[in-house]
Amino acid sequence: MKTTFDILSEHKSNMLEKTLVILKPCTVQRSLCGEILHRFERKGLRLVGMKMQWLTDEILNEHYAHLSTKPFFQRVKNSMMASPVVVCCFEGVDAIHSVRLLAGPTNGRLADPGTIRGDYSMSFQENIVHTSDCQDTAATEIARFFKPEELFDYKQVSFDYLYANDEF
Ligand code: ADP
Q1: Relative to the CA of 80, which ligand 1 atom is closest?
Q2: N or C: fewer beta carbons within 10 Å in the chain?
């Protein structure tokens, strides 16, 4: 069985990456936004964009195009339109894969304790967060939800204490 270290080693780009995180309606309705944001923040990811918005059928058809033939497609879209969501962009070295590991696998019931879905979800669908799954998807998704001026570049004062200088 592959260890988390093996998985991370295979995926590491050693590059600063941006990734999209959506706090789903279940998270907003269960008043968990602060707790979930805290998970990403305390990991050391830099928050570079955040806003609340309603998702539309149009945007979800694009966002979940890979699920369009699935029998549960409409149910997933309805769930994502049940209340506003909070859309975030986080940045860090290998952030895309690190954020996926933090989130855990799709089905909350099968997610390990310690992951966000493992700690907060009992569902395949109501699973707290969406996270980008690879570099191409992350770039497309960030552009879908954020205008360039809605993303912020600023000095993260803790940066030198988060990484060794040969890690990126
Ligand atoms: P992930 O969110 O882990 O990247 P997918 O991109 O495969 O997973 O699916 C997108 C979303 O669709 C999931 O987060 C979940 O809300 C929903 N979903 C996926 N598969 C199922 C399923 N078998 N039953 C119900 N909902 C599902």
Answers
A1: 16
A2: N
